[in-house]
Amino acid sequence: MDGNTEEWGPFGRPLFDDPSARALSRVGVVDVGSNSVRMVVFDGAARSPAYFYNEKILCGLGTGLRESGHLHPQGRVRALAAIKRFQLIAKGMGLAPLTAVATAAVRDATDGPAFRAEILRETGLELYVIDGEEEARLSAQGVLLGWPDAKGLMCDIGGSSLELAEITGGDVGKRVTSELGPLKLAGLPGGKKGLKAEIARTVDALAEEMGTDHKRLFLVGGSWRAIARLDMERRGYPLTVLHEYRMTPKSLSQTLKWIEKADLDAVRQRTGTSSTRMALVPTAALVLKRLVRVFRPKEIAVSSYGIREGMLYEQMPDRLRKRDPLIEACYFAEKKDARNPGFGKALYAFLQPLYKSAKPAELRVVKAACLLHDVSWRAHPDYRHEVCFDNATRANLGGLTHEERVFLGVALLHRYKNSRDGSRFEELFSILADEDCARAEALGKAMRFGAMFAVDDPLGKAELKWFPKKRELHLHLRKQAADLFGEVAQARFQSLADALGAQATVKTQR
Q1: pTM (2 decimals)?
Q2: In the chain, at which end, N or C, are there fewer CB atoms within 10 A of the end residue's CB?
Q3: Is residue 446 assigned to a domain?
Q4: Contact (CB, 8 A) for 472 and 503
Q5: Which one, of 30, 405, 98, 452, lies nearest residue 242 by Cα?
Q6: SS3 for 372?
């Protein structure tokens, strides 16, 4: 390993040497886990990278590891074939050399070194094996990529291990690893009784080491995501976006009981879960049940970001880590797709009088909406409002709760359409409280007016004044901008006033 590789870790090169630290060229990462082998190619805004390419093979390298001490023979064959394919895909994309890491199965198996040598010989790819604590740290950093202010306990379940890490103040604290992976647990003697006893013993020991004063659990790993998807299925939850999906201990407890009795094959087909993944769910459910019982969190949150994203976060300079991933992603989308990049900032400034008393959490969503207000303009005019809603609610955006996703979607829907009556998204609107829906509609109509009133600098042409107690909305037009306030602008300003339940007043400077 040369000095440059040692300095920059597995990537062997600096990723964030661009002075702006915003644009990130495509970076390919291979994660060789106990159950799956995956390649992800990240692209786009460095603080909130997009998934340019994502392919996973469930190889089951860790199957039977407890009994044999070796990687599963067929899993080795499949993993090697997958990595050979990934190398060719990366070459076809013109990527810099792939970075590959391996976790519990490869580090624990007696033939792990031989497997690494085979990979290097056959593909030229060096497989970096990380220990359990390092795996926990990187997975926790993946959570921080999506939630910069995350505070709680990260729980990452793989096929052969389970890692815990404290997260607070943007830092990763104490971390531990254990053998509570479903594949590793499969070989335990004593049947289900023995399995439960081992899970209880291990979780109790983890709790003693990590403490039980964590208000939130952040779940990382495919088995947890499968359980969260089953929770959505049981509840009839309409927004099947797993990232930042929240569960209460009570709801999750009901789902875990439901899993024990459900026809998992039928559920698997309804939810699109693979049979290989579903086979691990019952054991993973027992582990999660014990974790929740012992650690007693107030909330359980799902993170789709984990070790791969944590590797990117590892190299980020502090100035980049401190940026808001939601706003960074929106800046990138505006620059790439908007008709007039940069106008979102001007629109946000124009609408500021409507949000003098707004809390920071709402302001950041307002800012995000302004940045995204025009990125779907290429869609057919009759369907722009639907495309906007779909993009907001299902886009790869970090730092956004499901309620905020729907709020953003409703606002952008009303950027292009006055009414949402009869919408095919009506079921999703129910995620928001009625008053939040009304605020989102008002924001959308404010953007609808501001974006067409003056296409360059609305604040330079007029000023909004909002008196919430009197329910009065004033528009003060600059003299030179009076002709901009035509019939369509008048109608849209009145629509905004109606959404606010306000009396509209227009004044022109002399």
Answers
A1: 0.90
A2: C
A3: yes
A4: yes
A5: 405
A6: helix
